[in-house]
């Protein structure tokens, strides 16, 4: 009878941390895929926008939707846009989109900020040499 109890206790001690680790790694992988998606497609979307304000608005919306589509809506992405010109929308300007997210480790209280896994992604896009700035063209 005690062998059965020892087996159950040992099984729980081994299975619970393995399940928590697996769940955390699945969430981190999904967040990484979402961040890469936002960086790559967001750079292209931002480059096609008629101006910087519209590009920023669309990019923020796209980031929220992308993380929700990947099943990590609880992770809040931080999206940064950097350009080699000001404003960004100039012919042949280079736009870089950087996405950062901190994925919480499951089973750890939220008041421990160091218990997150950082996820980063970056992509660069060039504004078309044919870009005119007119939304009607």
Structure description:
- The protein is α+β, with helices and mostly antiparallel strands and 137 residues long.
- The protein has one domain.
- It has two helices and three strands.
- The chain has a three-stranded antiparallel sheet with strand order 1-2-3, with helices on one face.
- It starts with a helix and ends in an 11-residue tail after the last strand.
What does this entry show, briefly?
47% of the residues lie in helices and 20% in strands.
Ranges where pLDDT stays below 50 over 5 or more residues in a row are none
Task: Please count the helical segments.
Answer: 2
Note the beta-strand portion.
15-25%
Structural class: alpha+beta
Q: Into how many domains do the coordinates divide?
A: 1
Keywords:
single chain; 137 residues; 3 strands; alpha+beta; rod-shaped; 2 helices
Write the layout of secondary structure elements.
Layout (H helix, E strand, L loop, with lengths): L1 H47 L3 H18 L8 E6 L10 E11 L11 E11 L11
Antiparallel strand pairs: 1-2, 2-3
Helix pairs in contact: 1-2
């Amino acid at each position: 009878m005690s062998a059965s109890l020892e087996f159950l206790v040992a099984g729980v001690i081994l299975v619970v941390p393995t399940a928590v680790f697996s769940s955390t790694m699945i969430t981190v992988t999904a967040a990484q895929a979402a961040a890469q998606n936002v960086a790559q497609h967001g750079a292209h979307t931002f480059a096609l926008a008629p101006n910087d304000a519209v590009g920023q608005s669309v990019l923020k919306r796209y980031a929220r939707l992308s993380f929700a589509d990947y099943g990590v809506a609880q992770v809040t992405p931080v999206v940064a846009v950097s350009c080699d010109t000001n404003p960004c929308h100039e012919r042949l300007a280079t736009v870089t989109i950087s996405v950062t997210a901190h994925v919480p480790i499951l089973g750890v209280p939220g008041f421990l900020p160091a218990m997150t896994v950082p996820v980063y992604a970056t992509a660069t896009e060039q504004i078309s040499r044919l870009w005119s700035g007119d939304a009607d063209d």
